[in-house]
């Protein structure tokens, strides 16, 4: 048995809406309510010899019992309960009946979490996998069957005394991730609910990250989703940040800019609250002080301070929101006071959202900091080169080209470094870009890579600018060397 910390010991107490899987009315729950009102003719399955007499006797008695009678029957013979339910799922293929059986199992587990052990102990006695029968159902076509099965798997994985095995865990988390990516998935709230449960267990968090889970969450959040799904997926990010290692890695996935955009548009208090909670963890839970500082700078860069100044004027019923606003405001204001131009530049490059901010155009900045782009095995230069290769945004390509040119201009061995990193080739490929500003900045960078006489280059560029009919977005002629 694997001992795990109870989730309420890891995560602060929250309103019930945050931790009860039945909180939000979803398509799955609406359908389940209709299915509960159906009546299954169990007699027909007995007569056709699709189920044995002992399974028939149990399911009829269980199906017609009230809550207390069901509890007594489960305590009297838990092994028969698991055996019957699994036999029914294995031998009955009719979708309507399968939907009904799964709803019964889910309701049974929801009434008492400890009942997950009924299935665990049964599979252990038979030396079979508890996951097999349920994971196989994820290959069915019916959406309700898929997602009700998924709910049951999440409950077994999170409420049992034993963890889900690695291979089955990876399969299930990959299935959840793929369901999130489906366009117009009417069951997306149910998928998100399962993830909310799974990611409360620390051992499952790294498995989710390993299947590219964070990128998937952010990809969905960057699209058009309703506020309930926004809340649920940001909740998943929030739970992940309770692990210090994951909190430190989080903004490498651009969590801060994406959540800052949602925060600026949010009109729902629950969405605002959960974003602020994520931001707080990104400062408070990380153990590396430098990473916490970088997170603060990123929040300042993406106008979180401005949003806090707006939020502080609103009245919230939830004291946690007020507390988080005060915490973030204090931390971000302090980071502004300590902010160096290189900190600002480094944070912007790592975010991948380049713009013509003043630091790029500052000759003083480049004279003082060009050599610092060599730090951490040329980390920032590698990011710039990667952006030249992958970005579709003209302004990003323009700024990245300009920065590479300025690095070469101010660092003596810059040309050699950029060539070794593949930057020269990337810049030259942009000479044929469709955007005139990108072409101009690429040309400027190529000339810096190839010309030694800066005074001559400056004069040539001045002539080129004078003769150009188009305008440039933030382009700058280099000063004399």
From TrEMBL:
<dbReference type="Pfam" id="PF03224">
    <property type="entry name" value="V-ATPase_H_N"/>
</dbReference>
<feature type="domain" description="ATPase V1 complex subunit H C-terminal">
    <location>
        <begin position="339"/>
        <end position="454"/>
    </location>
</feature>
<dbReference type="InterPro" id="IPR011989">
    <property type="entry name" value="ARM-like"/>
</dbReference>
<dbReference type="Pfam" id="PF11698">
    <property type="entry name" value="V-ATPase_H_C"/>
</dbReference>
<protein>
    <recommendedName>
        <fullName>V-type proton ATPase subunit H</fullName>
    </recommendedName>
</protein>
<dbReference type="InterPro" id="IPR000225">
    <property type="entry name" value="Armadillo"/>
</dbReference>
<dbReference type="GO" id="GO:0000221">
    <property type="term" value="C:vacuolar proton-transporting V-type ATPase, V1 domain"/>
</dbReference>
<keyword id="KW-0375">Hydrogen ion transport</keyword>
<comment type="subunit">
    <text>V-ATPase is a heteromultimeric enzyme made up of two complexes: the ATP-hydrolytic V1 complex and the proton translocation V0 complex.</text>
</comment>
<keyword id="KW-0406">Ion transport</keyword>
<comment type="function">
    <text>Subunit of the V1 complex of vacuolar(H+)-ATPase (V-ATPase), a multisubunit enzyme composed of a peripheral complex (V1) that hydrolyzes ATP and a membrane integral complex (V0) that translocates protons. V-ATPase is responsible for acidifying and maintaining the pH of intracellular compartments and in some cell types, is targeted to the plasma membrane, where it is responsible for acidifying the extracellular environment. Subunit H is essential for V-ATPase activity, but not for the assembly of the complex.</text>
</comment>
<dbReference type="InterPro" id="IPR038497">
    <property type="entry name" value="ATPase_V1-cplx_hsu_C_sf"/>
</dbReference>
<dbReference type="InterPro" id="IPR004908">
    <property type="entry name" value="ATPase_V1-cplx_hsu"/>
</dbReference>
<comment type="similarity">
    <text>Belongs to the V-ATPase H subunit family.</text>
</comment>
<dbReference type="GO" id="GO:0005765">
    <property type="term" value="C:lysosomal membrane"/>
</dbReference>
<dbReference type="InterPro" id="IPR011987">
    <property type="entry name" value="ATPase_V1-cplx_hsu_C"/>
</dbReference>
<dbReference type="InterPro" id="IPR016024">
    <property type="entry name" value="ARM-type_fold"/>
</dbReference>
<dbReference type="GO" id="GO:0046961">
    <property type="term" value="F:proton-transporting ATPase activity, rotational mechanism"/>
</dbReference>
<keyword id="KW-0813">Transport</keyword>
């Amino acid at each position: 048995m694997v001992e795990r910390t109870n989730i309420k010991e890891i995560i602060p107490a929250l309103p019930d809406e945050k931790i009860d899987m039945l909180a939000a009315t979803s398509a799955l729950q609406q359908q389940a309510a209709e299915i509960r009102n159906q009546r299954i003719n169990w007699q027909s399955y007995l007569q056709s010899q699709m189920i044995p007499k002992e399974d028939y006797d149990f399911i009829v008695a269980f199906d017609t019992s009230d809550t207390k009678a069901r509890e007594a029957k489960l305590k009297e013979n838990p092994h028969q309960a698991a055996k019957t339910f699994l036999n029914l799922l294995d031998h009955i293929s009719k979708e309507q009946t399968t939907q009904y059986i799964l709803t019964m199992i889910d309701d049974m587990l929801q009434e008492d979490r400890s009942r997950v052990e009924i299935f665990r102990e049964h599979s252990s006695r038979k030396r079979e996998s508890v996951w097999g029968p349920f994971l196989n159902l994820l290959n069915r076509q019916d959406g309700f069957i898929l997602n009700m099965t998924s709910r049951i798997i999440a409950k077994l994985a999170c409420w049992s005394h034993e963890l889900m095995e690695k291979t089955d865990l990876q399969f299930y988390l990959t299935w959840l991730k793929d369901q999130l990516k489906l366009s117009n998935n009417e069951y997306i709230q149910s998928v998100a609910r399962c993830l909310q449960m799974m990611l409360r267990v620390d051992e499952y968090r790294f498995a989710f990250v390993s299947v590219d889970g964070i990128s998937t969450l952010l990809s969905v959040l960057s699209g058009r989703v309703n506020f309930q799904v926004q809340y649920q997926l940001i909740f998943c990010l929030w739970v992940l940040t309770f692990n210090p290692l994951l909190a430190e890695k989080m903004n490498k996935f651009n969590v801060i800019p994406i959540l800052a955009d949602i925060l600026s548009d949010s009109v729902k208090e629950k969405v605002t609250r959960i974003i602020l909670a994520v931001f707080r963890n990104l400062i408070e839970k990380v153990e590396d002080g430098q990473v916490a500082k970088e997170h603060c700078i990123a929040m300042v860069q993406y106008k979180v301070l401005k949003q806090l100044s707006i939020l502080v004027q609103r009245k919230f019923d939830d004291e946690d929101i007020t507390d988080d606003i005060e915490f973030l405001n204090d931390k971000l204001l302090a980071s502004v006071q300590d902010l160096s131009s290189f900190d600002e530049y480094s944070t912007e490059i790592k975010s991948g959202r380049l713009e013509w901010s003043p630091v790029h155009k500052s000759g003083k900045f480049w004279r003082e900091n060009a050599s610092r782009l060599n730090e951490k095995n040329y980390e920032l230069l590698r990011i710039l080169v990667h952006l030249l290769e992958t970005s579709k945004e003209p302004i990003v390509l323009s700024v990245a080209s300009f920065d590479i040119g300025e690095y070469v201009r101010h660092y003596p061995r810059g040309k050699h470094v950029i060539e070794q990193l593949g930057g020269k080739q990337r810049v030259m490929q942009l000479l044929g870009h469709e955007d005139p500003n990108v072409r101009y900045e690429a040309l400027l960078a190529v000339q810096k890579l190839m010309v030694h006489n800066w005074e001559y280059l400056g004069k040539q560029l001045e002539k080129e600018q004078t003769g150009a009919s188009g305008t440039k977005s933030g382009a700058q002629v280099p000063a004399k060397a």
